[in-house]
Design the sequence.
C-alpha cells in the first residue's frame, strides 16, 4: 500500500506566514481561492519539501522579512522536514514514526517519489526520445535489442544498395556482348610473331632488290667491271627468284587485330558474368536485410501492443508517445496533465503524490478522470485552482465533488475548510 500525505505545515513560504493543510490522505485535495490568497505558495511549499528548492516556481520562496522558510509534511510512515534559508542554504530531515532520524534523506526521498510528480506537464515537455524511453521503462518493456538489430540491418542494407548501384552502373557501361564465341580465338602473340617475321623477310627482300638496282647502275658506270657485275647480277637474280614475291601484310595485320579484339571480348564477358553474379547476390542480400528490418519492427510492435501502459490509450511509436491515434504533444493540456499524473504515479514506488498548478484548466469531467487515475494507482492529487473568495482547502476522499455542489463559505482569508465526501 503506498504511503499517503496526512498533513502539511507551512511557515514563511511565499505569501504564507503560517498555514496548516490537513490533507488526511485524501485522493484529491483542491487548494482554491482568488489570486493573491496564497494558493501557489502552498503548492510551492509542498514542492520545496518533497523535491527541493529547484522545484519551487517562485524565484524568492522565502517570505519577505523572514530569515528561513520551513515546511513539514507528515505521511503515514514518516515526517519530512525541509528548511530553506534566505541565503539559499537548505536542510532536509526525515524521521520515522517513533522520531528516529533516517540517514541519507535526499536519496531516500528520491527513491520514494519521482521528480515528474512536481509537475505532470514536465513529462510532455521532455525531448521525444527521453519521453518515449521513460514510458517504455515504466511499462516494463525493452525493445532496444529489436531497435539495435533494425538499425544494424538498415545500415547493412544501405551499404549493400550502394554497392548494388555501383554494379548496375558498371554493367550498363559495358558494350553489348558479341554473339561469336571467343573461346576459340587465335593467340595474338603467335599472330604478332608471324607478322614480325614476314616484315623481316620483306625488309630483307627489299634490301636484295636495292642491291639489284645498284648493280644495274654500276654496269652502266663501270664497264671494266661488267663481267664481274654481270655474274653477280646473275647470282642475285637467282636469289630474287628464290625469294618469291613480297608477302601481303594485310591478312596478318587483320589477324592481329582480330586476336586483340577476341581478348577484349573475353575480358568483357568475364567482367559481365562476375558483375551479374555479384548483382544477383547483392539483390538477395538487400532483400534479406529488408526482411530483418520488417521482422524487428513486427517484434517491437508486438511487444508494445502487449505492454502494461500506465494509462489506457498510451503507446509508443518509435520516439513518439501516442495518445490514441495522435501524438501526446498535440493533446490538450487537460489530457497531458492526466497522462503526466499517471506517469508520476507509476514512477513513484512509495509516495504517490502529484502537484498540479494548472488546476484551473480542468473542467469537472477532466477532474473526475484525473481522480480516477489517482484511485487506480493509489495516489494523491494536490492541485490549485482559481476561485472566488479566500484561500480554501477542499479535501475529496473517494469521490469527486459533485458539479454544482454548494461550497461552505469560509470566514477569513486564512481559513482551512475540510469537505469529507
Sequence:
Amino acid at each position: 500500500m503506498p504511503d499517503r500525505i496526512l498533513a502539511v505545515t507551512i511557515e514563511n513560504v511565499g505569501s504564507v506566514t503560517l498555514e496548516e493543510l490537513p490533507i488526511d490522505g485524501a485522493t484529491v485535495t483542491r487548494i482554491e481561492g482568488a489570486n493573491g490568497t496564497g494558493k501557489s505558495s502552498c503548492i510551492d511549499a509542498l514542492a520545496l519539501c518533497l523535491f527541493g528548492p529547484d522545484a519551487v516556481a517562485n524565484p524568492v520562496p522565502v517570505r519577505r522579512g523572514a530569515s528561513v522558510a520551513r515546511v513539514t509534511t507528515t505521511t503515514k510512515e514518516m515526517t519530512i522536514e525541509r528548511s530553506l534559508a534566505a541565503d539559499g542554504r537548505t536542510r532536509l530531515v526525515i524521521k520515522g514514526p517513533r522520531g528516529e532520524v533516517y540517514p541519507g534523506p535526499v536519496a531516500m526521498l528520491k527513491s520514494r517519489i519521482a521528480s515528474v510528480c512536481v509537475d505532470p506537464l514536465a513529462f510532455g515537455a521532455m525531448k521525444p526520445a527521453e519521453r518515449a524511453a521513460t514510458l517504455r521503462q515504466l511499462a516494463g518493456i525493452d525493445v532496444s535489442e529489436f531497435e539495435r538489430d533494425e538499425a544494424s540491418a538498415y545500415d547493412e542494407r544501405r551499404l549493400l544498395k550502394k554497392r548494388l548501384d555501383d554494379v548496375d552502373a558498371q554493367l550498363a557501361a559495358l558494350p553489348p556482348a558479341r554473339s561469336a564465341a571467343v573461346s576459340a580465338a587465335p593467340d595474338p602473340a603467335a599472330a604478332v610473331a608471324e607478322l614480325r617475321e614476314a616484315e623481316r623477310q620483306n625488309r630483307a627482300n627489299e634490301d636484295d632488290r636495292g642491291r639489284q638496282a645498284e648493280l644495274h647502275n654500276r654496269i652502266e658506270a663501270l664497264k671494266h667491271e661488267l663481267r664481274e657485275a654481270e655474274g653477280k647480277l646473275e647470282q642475285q637474280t637467282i636469289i630474287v627468284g628464290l625469294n618469291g614475291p613480297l608477302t601481303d601484310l594485310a591478312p596478318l595485320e587483320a589477324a592481329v587485330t582480330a586476336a586483340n579484339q577476341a581478348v577484349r571480348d573475353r575480358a568483357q564477358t568475364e567482367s559481365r558474368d562476375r558483375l551479374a553474379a555479384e548483382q544477383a547476390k547483392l539483390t538477395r542480400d538487400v532483400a534479406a536485410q529488408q526482411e530483418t528490418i520488417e521482422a524487428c519492427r513486427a517484434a517491437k510492435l508486438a511487444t508494445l501492443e502487449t505492454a502494461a501502459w500506465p494509462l489506457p490509450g498510451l503507446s509508443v511509436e518509435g520516439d513518439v508517445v501516442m495518445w490514441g491515434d495522435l501524438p501526446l504533444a498535440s493533446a490538450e493540456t487537460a489530457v497531458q496533465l492526466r497522462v503526466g499524473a499517471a506517469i508520476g504515479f507509476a514512477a513513484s514506488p512509495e509516495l504517490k503524490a502529484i502537484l498540479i498548478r494548472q488546476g484551473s484548466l480542468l473542467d469537472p469531467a477532466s477532474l473526475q478522470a484525473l481522480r480516477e487515475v489517482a484511485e487506480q494507482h493509489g495516489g494523491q492529487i494536490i492541485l490549485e485552482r482559481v476561485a472566488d473568495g479566500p484561500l480554501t482547502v477542499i479535501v475529496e476522499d473517494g469521490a469527486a465533488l459533485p458539479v454544482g455542489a454548494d461550497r461552505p463559505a469560509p470566514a477569513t482569508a486564512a481559513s482551512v475548510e475540510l469537505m469529507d465526501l
Summary: The two ends are 22 Å apart (CA to CA). Residues 398-421 have pLDDT under 50 and may be disordered.
